[in-house]
Amino acid sequence: MMHCLQFLIEPAKNITVKLKESHKKAQDEKREPLDESQQFIADLAKDLSRVCQRSEVLENISSGEDVWPTLTCRAFILEWASMLESKKRPMQTDGWPEKSDWKELALTNEQDIESAKKLITNWTKDLRAQPEQSVWPGEQMVVVLDDLEKHWRRGRMPTLQPAMELIFWTLLAKELDKENIPRQWLIWKQKSQKIGATPYIPHTVWDWISDAAVEVTLDLDTANPDLLISDDEKRMRCGFERKEVPNYHQRFDGWWCAVGMEGFGSGRHYWEVDVGEMDWRLGVAKESALRKGFKSLNTHTGYLTLRLERGTELKALTVPFTALPADLIPRRVGVHLDFDQGQLSFYDAEKRSHLFTYNESFDEKLFPLFGTVEIVKDLVIRSPGVRSRCMCPAMCLWG
User: Fold this and answer.
1) In this model, does residue 367 exceed pLDDT 60?
2) In the predicted model, is pLDDT for residue 39 greater than 50?
3) Of 332, 335, 333, which Cα lies nearest the Cα of 368?
4) Mean pLDDT of the chain
5) Taking CA atoms, which of 238, 278, 284, 293 is between 20 and 30 Å from 379?
6) Of the candidates 396, 370, 386, 398, which has an alpha carbon nearest to the alpha carbon of residue 211?
7) CA 365, CA 188: separation in Å to the nearest integer?
8) What percentage of the chain's residues is helix, strand, coil (to nearest 5)?
């Protein structure tokens, strides 16, 4: 049978090869010359590829297939030169400028850019002198890098900057356990860039987050009397009539909220929530936080939350509040509490992308918080599913 079909297979292969060559030629003709900062990033990618030869992800940058905006290149150069100069470990981010500050600096400081380039160039020279085995990041890293590349090729990441950052960070933190590098990188990213730290979380890191999934149910004794709660205590929405219920001190009687039955005082915990399209609130409430009245539920009053208002305004209720870009508005939110690391992170659970992270030292129990004013669409706490470990070598093919 295969011999009969050979006359179809071979021409098809030839057509595919010619189409790829034609597409590459068209892309080459469209490319504009790289400016100095873009060329520096391309050269840096080539240098890093030499010491991380078991992944081809950086070849897309060094070949000019993945070209970053000039401002992104300049900000990257300033940030990583600062890391090299300070000799701080990447996990110790206190006092570092945030990403927005790097971009502002990148607009003006030409002399600083040149000094930063020189510092990085000297570092890469020293790096090339080291044996490859001493800087080899391990198979776990290659899986993560391949996953990032596949998502970039599918248009789900604008550039391969996260892959470049991960390799750079790995080479600076090479004393870490290689198996833990990708998850430690995410923790660092969420400390140094609280909003939208990464547009895609690699599936091995997402598995680590999901492994902390817990069953969360609503505590009826804390629910605002206007809320309608399902029999399984996992769905809620606003009703039209206020119920007659005991006025417990822990019950919300102003904001339309409820907390989970169980509070957490250590470890990692993850839960997912299907949210409405107009107005919702998610996060945690400290055990000591007051629940009566309409006092703002923000960091000053013991609440670490994310809220959507009027369907278009996504914000973290810091003081003052932190506005998040409208393109980050999710429909399913993942909440990851890492009590011991002092991080509460929010994710778009469908895109597996980062939304926002609170970083602080927790010293009391934290209770999952849920709020909604919608009367049609339920806010739904999802039960953790039975999940088998992914066997795909790179990006998961199933979920």
Assistant:
1) yes
2) yes
3) 335
4) 86
5) 293
6) 386
7) 24
8) 40, 20, 40
